[in-house]
């Protein structure tokens, strides 16, 4: 009997948590998306505007705080980065298309030559288990960097830490920000479908993602996740 009550309680809690998440659908005609899965996912749930346009500072900060439990200082910094790199410093909003600006020797931006989701087959081949740990994230990031460097004649990626930072961000928000592990199914759903993996068991992390948690994740990875020297 007791067991039954626990199961009933657990399923009603899960259903409640999922019911709160606004409906998901991929972008339709006229809706734009960015090179960033983190904000695309939120737009697909209408947490950020589905249109992908006019993302206001407070809306972005609130969304990243409520759904990803990200520290306000980080989300404010990301917002600033988006408006600065897209050439609209001081603006109160940005469109997702604004941040599709390729980083090269003359343009300082963040969309770069080493995105791991654009070589998903290769990236995914490093993750064979039910969970992904920081070493496995680091191995995939390193492979992406090295392959790109070897095969892309115009490869430009001076700040290797960006890959590690993105991976650490994903780990901290989707998984265990202290252990540095994430259920593989969460990453698949989030990256491939650009969807919050709530129906697969994910819910917003109780632990805040801030510079301390991200830094600790980096320290766990013996130089592959974050790499201080600039090159592997
Ligand atoms: C206003 C907020 C944000 C902005 C402006 C932003 C911007 C970007 C940009 C421009 C990229 C492309 C980098 C590249 O091509 O090398 C990127 C990648 C990425 N972002 Fe964000 N981001 C934001 C929030 C987030 C959040 C909240 C998360 C995680 C929860 C996240 C996770 C990632 C990941 C994992 C990638 C790497 C994708 C890949 O390499 O394929 N971002 N972001």
Automatic annotation (TrEMBL):
Pfam families referenced in this protein's UniProt entry, alphabetically: Peroxidase_2 (PF01328)
Keywords recorded for this protein, A-Z: Heme, Iron, Metal-binding, Oxidoreductase, Peroxidase, Signal
Tagged with keyword ATP-binding: no
Cell cycle in keyword set: no
PROSITE patterns to which the protein is assigned, alphabetical: HEME_HALOPEROXIDASE (PS51405)
Stored InterPro entries: Chloroperoxidase, Chloroperoxidase-like_sf
First and last residue of the signal peptide: 1-19
Cofactor(s) listed in the protein's UniProt record: heme b
UniProt xrefs under SUPFAM superfamilies: Cloroperoxidase
GO molecular function terms noted in the UniProt entry: metal ion binding; peroxidase activity
Heme haloperoxidase family profile domain boundaries: 20-219
Record family assignment: Belongs to the chloroperoxidase family.
PANTHER family per record: PEROXIDASE STCC (PTHR33577:SF9), STERIGMATOCYSTIN BIOSYNTHESIS PEROXIDASE STCC-RELATED (PTHR33577)
Protein name: Heme haloperoxidase family profile domain-containing protein
Source organism of this protein record: Pseudopithomyces chartarum
